[in-house]
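A quick aside before the break. I want you to see a complete sequence-to-structure record at least once, exactly as it would be stored in a machine-readable document. Don't worry about memorizing anything.
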Amino acid sequence: MKIKELFSKEPCNTGRQFELDFLRMILIIRLATVHVFVDASPPATLDVLGIPYYFDSVVGGFIGPTRFMLAMGIGLAYTRHGSAKEVFQRGIRLWTVGFVLNVFRFLIPSLIGYAITGDAEKFIEPLPYLFFGNDIMQFAALAMLLMGILLHFRLTPWKILAVSFGMSLVGNFLRNIDTSNNVLNIILGHFVGVEDKSGDTYIISDFPLVIWFLFYAFGFVFGYYYKRLKDKGKFYLIVSPACVIISFGFAAREIIGGFGMMMGEGANVFYHMNTVEAVMCIMAFVGLLGLHYFISKYVPAKLRPPIESISRNVNSVYCIHWVLVWWSVDLVIYCIKGDTYLKPLPAFALGCLLSLASILLAELWSRIKAKRKKRV
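That is the input. The structure line, written in tokens, reads:
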């Protein structure tokens, strides 16, 4: 059977796609553990094979944030609120949420930490970058704003994908940019790959729009055709094995060869990946989505509602987990020990605890919002 025979001209695969909820849930429950390891591991342990490296560069890198952006693009293809105006407005709201998050995640605990310890190097000097830098929330907001503009001009999904590939190719040459001005570097870092050559470890750009928009755009195109997919099982049996073998073979080669390209921690290489590396991440997503599809078929019916609930609460879980991680590791543990470093087992236990707390608090917040809507 040819691939094109698996698709219909009109949408036939509509409604919530449980394999996407299942995949997103797996990503969500690992968020806190990943970021605890990032914040609580000595930098040297992140550059050698081991548990910290696995959580930072594999789970938190190659098979992590790119899948969030791809899933976000698929969601755009499925949403009933996908007009140019609605997408643009959502981008503005998400940008606002990102800065509110930074108040509780960075500003307040940093001021408290400085008041307790007097350590300006830890709590004050990095604060401007932490507060105004481009985390994934800021990137997602900019991606939605750009997508809203492209939809306004009635670009087809394929033309949007072409634009994103063009941006990625341009981004290959706009990495390690340094304006020699911290303020300009922080601003420019939202769009291209900035890295301060003076050695200021804080002035970097984590999710530059030019490089990362490709994931959102590909997810949108993938979702467009996913709605028209007649047989998901056959599709994944044909596509997923090749995607897994090629993408994971590429990643393994880069690790074995000395942590090259996007699998290394140095030079912010993962966030400033080139177009080939981005395609490898996309192939890994498609391959692993197929695996999640087949596994999800065996998930008991009683577990499906809580999985879908966790998936729906992705933004709330993200915000809550980061506040908990920063306050517990970078404030409390630092004030007690004088550093943030934990051994792998305590770090993993703390990550699991904060993950559970984030999910439960997000569900509580969701129910509070639902009650408020009913009252209105």
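Two observations worth writing down. The CA atoms of residues 50 and 344 lie 9 Å apart. The radius of gyration is 21 Å. We'll return to this after the break.
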